[in-house]
Amino acid sequence: MAKRETVSGIAAPLPLHNLDTDQIMPKQFLLGIDKSGLARGVLHDLRMDASGSPRPEFVLNRPEYQGAKILVGGANFGCGSSREHAVWGLMQAGFEAVIAPSYGEIFYFNALNNRLLLVMLAPEIVERLMTLVSDPAQSHLTIDVARQCVRTLDGTEYAFELPERQKRMFIEGLDTIGMTLSDGDEIKAFEARHHAAHEWMNIDLPAQRRAAG
User: Fold this and answer.
1) What pTM did the predictor assign?
2) Where are the domains of the chain?
3) How far apart (Å, rounded) are the C-alpha atoms in residues 1 and 54?
């Protein structure tokens, strides 16, 4: 994955508290054995009516929010089951970040490990941003991951915290395996020290030497 330090684009307001992973990705779309084809299931029952037609009043069906990259959501976003498909679907639908007061714990780490950026801000700040982006003329936000701040069109900035590991993974384009491999030299140095102190554990040594140890 390419390196990047910012997410910038249209932000869509989704003022729903306790939006769970079944609402984000309903179970009827979990039929495949891979990650493909999940975009059509994202928020399906909110986007579509019982006949399968788009609800014109729903924010993501409105023309001014087409191509939105950021969701501004309510508290406890992504609660419920641990289905990683909710994260994959949001990303396939073009979303690169979510801003909310809090998240379901498993969803939070599933998202960050897949490089879907989750920004956590105080409820009153999220409410301010929700009101702001509800005006399509003010809906553009920039999230500066390197500086850890959200910036509005008028230049107002709101700082947020992000675990250093997840920050590095996002900026450097690393998944969990890539993150581990990037520490390869340190891992090898630890292994050498550990085996020097505990030779009997080193499977590369001849068996008789390990037995003698």
Assistant:
1) 0.84
2) 6-173, 183-213
3) 33
